[in-house]
Specification:
vWFA_dom_sf; VWA domain-containing protein; 3-stranded mixed β-sheet; mainly alpha; globular; 3 strands; 8 helices; vWA_TerF_C; 203 residues
Amino acid sequence: MCCTRPGERPHHEGVIATNSSSGRASAISLSKVQEDAPDLVTLYEAAGDSLRRQGLEGVRAAVYLVLDRSGSMRSYYRDGTMQHLAEQVLSLSAHLDDDGIVPVVFFSTDVDGSTDLTLGRHRTRIDKLHENLGHMGRTNDNEFAFLRKLDTLAVPARRIVDNAGFFHVGRNPRATTDHQLFDRLLQEFPEWLTAARTARVVR
């Protein structure tokens, strides 16, 4: 799995995109998460810890998730890894976007399908939609090389700001703790946000 830093359009799984500015409090309160999604409270708190470490409290951002559905990902759907990733992203989104929704796109050979992951109606959502989509296609073997290339494109010759970040979590994504995942997703966000505001990409 891989992730790109907030930017313009989503590319691959675990993508976050933003084009907004900041207040102070989380977009959705802890009490609301406790009421609608008590099973996500631990993830919500972990995401909040990472946001505070990066000085990102109150930042508002739209969050998107793009999931690989090629055959090589079969075991990760079967063991719940992809459902858990979606819940991690939804928990992070609750701090950044007050609609409680993460748009999700599945891809393999082509776009397989899409859905909204909604706080309180998230349980088994990814698993069920994956099963309903049927046949799993293929992806290009050069996917990781492409993502790494996105992360190294020259600024400003090839793009206005550095809007992509890549990291590989290995063959056992669940070995990466929630705190580690959130920290890695957000580690370049403050620098990007400053550059994007300076370039007037966002306000």
